[in-house]
């Protein structure tokens, strides 16, 4: 009894790698190995790299907009209609300038996610699930070991990024302090360049930190996906079918095939026997068949059953051991008699026809 309990305990341990079927089911549910840090870092890196080349356009737009505000908008009468027009124009112009930045972020974010998990439509992952808004489960997630690890990881990243930002600002501190002496456009370009530099440096740091996080997320996902030996066996049964059910199904198919074969015995012309081990049923219709056809055959118990039916229906039986053995081994049910056995079979049929006074 103790040994059986020990075996059950060890069979319940999740020591086996997830099967392809379980991986596919988890993927359909949106449960995949991915690191959000990778997405964030790559989005940030791509955004600021693009901003380096796009900053001139943004600067020109801001200068034009400020010029337009002081030369056009300030000369208008302040009414509800004029304010609505001004806000609409500013919104449209700002959207045109900001749209490329948002598009870059979306494209890079999508590409980063696809790079980790590929592209697959998973409607199961976006279904409304009430357990996701369960306060008790939410409280457990907040104070779980995983949440604590994420907290310390975030604090570590904030500390490193803060150090990078401080270093860059400290290096350019003199330029920032003297910015009041520069032209406004030069000051804008300085701030834009420093912002881009801080963004790119921080993004590169986050990309470096995201690599071990991605490796850990894959390891943790594989660990969560592990299966016990019992789970693997159960899945195999579901995929292949329960052996007992398969055995019953196979037995039923054999019984149906046997019944169909036995239905051919009363229509036969002759049964050639071994006499005890084999029985082969032959049928020949002159004009519609090129050669005699084996309509049923069997060995041992099946042969005995065929001979019983033949006696009941008065089907002639001929004992010919070599011919019965040869027909049983060389011809399947529905096959014509092999050519090398034509002569022997023809002699048997001629003998039967003579008995029936057919010739």
Question: Can you walk through the features of this model?
Answer:
The protein has 13 helices and four strands. The chain is mainly α and 359 residues long. It has two domains: 26-117 and 132-226, no CATH class; 264-355, secretion proteins EscU (name from scop, 3-Layer(aba) Sandwich), CATH 3.40.1690.10. A four-stranded mixed sheet has the order 3-2-1-4, with helices on both faces. The relative contact order is 0.09. Residues 1-11 have low confidence and may be disordered.
Can you tag this structure with a few keywords?
359 residues; mainly alpha; name from scop; 2 domains; four-stranded mixed sheet; 13 helices; 68% helix; elongated; disordered N terminus; T3SS_substrate_exporter
Report the uncertain regions: 1-11
Strand order within the widest beta sheet:
3-2-1-4
Question: What are the secondary-structure elements, in order, as H or E?
Answer: HHHHHHHHHHEEEHEHH
Question: Separation of termini?
Answer: 77 Å
Mean pLDDT: 76
Total of domains: 2
Structural class: mainly alpha
**Major sheet: size, sense and barrel closure?**
4 strands, mixed
Give the helix proportion (percent range).
Answer: 55-70%
Give the helix tally.
Answer: 13
**What is the beta-strand fraction?**
5-15%
Number of strands: 4
Q: What shape does the CA trace take? A: elongated
Radius of gyration: 42 Å
């Amino acid at each position: 009894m103790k040994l059986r309990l020990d075996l059950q305990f060890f069979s319940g341990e999740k020591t086996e790698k997830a099967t392809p079927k379980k991986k596919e089911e988890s993927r359909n549910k949106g449960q995949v190995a991915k690191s959000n840090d990778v997405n964030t870092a790559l989005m940030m890196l791509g955004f600021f790299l693009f901003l380096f080349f796009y900053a001139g356009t943004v600067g020109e737009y801001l200068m034009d907009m400020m010029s337009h505000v002081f030369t056009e908008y300030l000369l208008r009468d302040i009414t509800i209609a004029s304010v609505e027009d001004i806000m609409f124009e500013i919104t449209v112009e700002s959207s045109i300038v900001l749209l490329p930045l948002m598009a870059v972020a979306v494209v890079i974010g999508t590409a980063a996610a696809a790079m980790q998990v590929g592209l697959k439509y998973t409607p199961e992952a976006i279904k409304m699930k009430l357990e996701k808004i369960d306060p008790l489960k939410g409280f457990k997630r907040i104070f779980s070991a995983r949440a604590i690890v994420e907290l310390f990881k975030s604090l570590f990243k904030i500390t490193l990024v803060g150090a990078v930002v401080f270093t860059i600002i400290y290096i350019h501190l003199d330029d920032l302090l003297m910015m009041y002496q520069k032209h406004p456009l030069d000051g804008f370009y300085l701030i834009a360049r420093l912002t881009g530099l801080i963004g790119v440096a921080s993004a590169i740091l986050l990309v470096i930190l995201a690599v071990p996080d991605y490796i850990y997320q894959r390891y943790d996902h594989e660990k969560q996906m592990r299966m016990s030996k019992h789970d693997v066996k159960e899945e195999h049964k579901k995929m292949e079918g329960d052996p007992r059910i398969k055995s019953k199904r196979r037995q039923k198919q054999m019984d149906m095939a046997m019944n169909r074969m036995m239905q051919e015995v009363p229509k036969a012309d002759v049964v050639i026997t071994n006499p005890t081990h084999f029985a082969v049923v032959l049928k020949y219709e002159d004009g519609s068949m090129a050669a005699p056809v084996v309509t049923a055959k069997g060995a041992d118990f099946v042969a005995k059953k065929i001979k019983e039916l033949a006696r009941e229906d008065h089907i002639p039986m001929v004992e010919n051991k070599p011919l019965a053995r040869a027909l049983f081994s060389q011809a399947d049910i529905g096959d014509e008699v092999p050519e090398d056995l034509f002569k022997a079979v023809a002699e048997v049929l001629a003998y039967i026809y003579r008995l029936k006074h057919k010739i």
